[in-house]
Amino acid sequence: MSNPSNGNASAVHPSVQPLFTPFSIGTLTLPNRIVMAPMTRSFSPNGIPGADVARYYRRRAENGVGLIITEGTVINHPSSADHPNVPHFYGPALKGWSSVVEEVHAAGGLIFPQLWHVGMARKIGSPPNPEILPIGPSGIDLSGHQVTAPMTESDILSVIDAFAQAAADAKSLGFDGIEIHGAHGYLIDQFFWKKTNRRSDRYSGESFEGATRFAAEIIRAVRHAVGPDFPIALRISQWKTSNYTAKLAETPEQLASFLEPLTAAGVDIFHCSTRRFWEPEFEGSNLNLAGWVKLLTGRPTITVGSVGLNEEFMRSFASGQATQVTGIDGLIERLEQNEFDLVAVGRSLLVDPEWAMKIRNGRFGELKPFTVDALNSLY
After folding, report:
1. Which end of the chain has fewer surrounding CB within 10 Å, N or C?
2. Average pLDDT over residues 110-129
3. Digit-coded pLDDT (tens) for 258-315
4. Average pLDDT taken over every residue of the chain
5. Of 56, 57, 90, 186, which one is the catalytic site residue?
6. 8 A C-beta contact, residue 170 and residue 73
């Protein structure tokens, strides 16, 4: 099946036209503004994605998703993962990812891997390497407990090297860019957050310059590994999986100070994770996080958070109830106002690979609600 966004399907429904205009990130042009959000699926036994994973991503490409960002894939570091079926991005897993790229490209799609290290979100004894201790900037877990020793500078360098190698491998495999996972309380975000970064050296969380140094060094190493034209996305968030009210920046001024080193290091696009895209980030403005980041950096941004659904994801998991479909008129209006550039869609695409096609063709009555049962299969 060919990609409908390449002109092989019926006309775009007028109400969603802004979602189906091309967008360029450097030399890469996306056919539309819809991004498949990274969603952990854990269907890669021993970290190796199989043919079922390739089919899963291909189905979304066939149905008009402009850019696919894979689930988090862990870099080549012994404490990067906390589950045996989370996909690796090194070793034998690279052959599986090569097949994923081939399938997505054959369907006319574009795809980035999300590169990930869980840091102190990993509990002691977790597979696939239960004998290895978790690592973090200060050895402090997301609840604020001291669990292990702080990372040494040697530890820091080894992780930076692993990110750079993964990025180089992504380019060699034919991926269209990469995303670095710097959100949700995982390793990079643990350096950003004062609660988990209590270092007193040049990586100290007491200043934005120190807190962002680790991420900036990763970005620069990745840029060196992939060259000037390979897109680098960075996913950021204020909230953590353990703390929905956490803030890295309390004001636009603080956010500007946080973003400046990351922008200077070479981020091409910021993926701004929020739980509900329509919520303002700061008082006195309706701009969401993606809107503020675009305004402050001048770089393109991706918004995300309950797109097309009436309940944010963690509440839907807790309740076990179906999350119902809602309209996207407010999203379209914000996109038309250039508040952000791209729209990441998670659960709606997880439950329905045809979501983008249905939106494009105005088949709104065919959209599916999300239920937690959708997590039990890879469709």
Report:
1. C
2. 97
3. 999 999 999 999 999 999 999 999 999 999 999 999 999 999 999 999 898 876 555 5
4. 94
5. 186
6. no
CA distances from 30 to 9, 41, 65, 179, 231 (A): 17, 25, 9, 15, 12
Residue 182 makes CB contacts below 8 A (sequence gap 6+) with 188, 189, 192, 215, 234, 235, 236
Q: Could you tell me the CA-to-CA distances from 104 to 99, 178, 315, 362, 363 in Å, in that order?
A: 9, 15, 32, 24, 24
Q: Is 379 a catalytic residue?
A: no
Tokens encoding 356: 């983008």
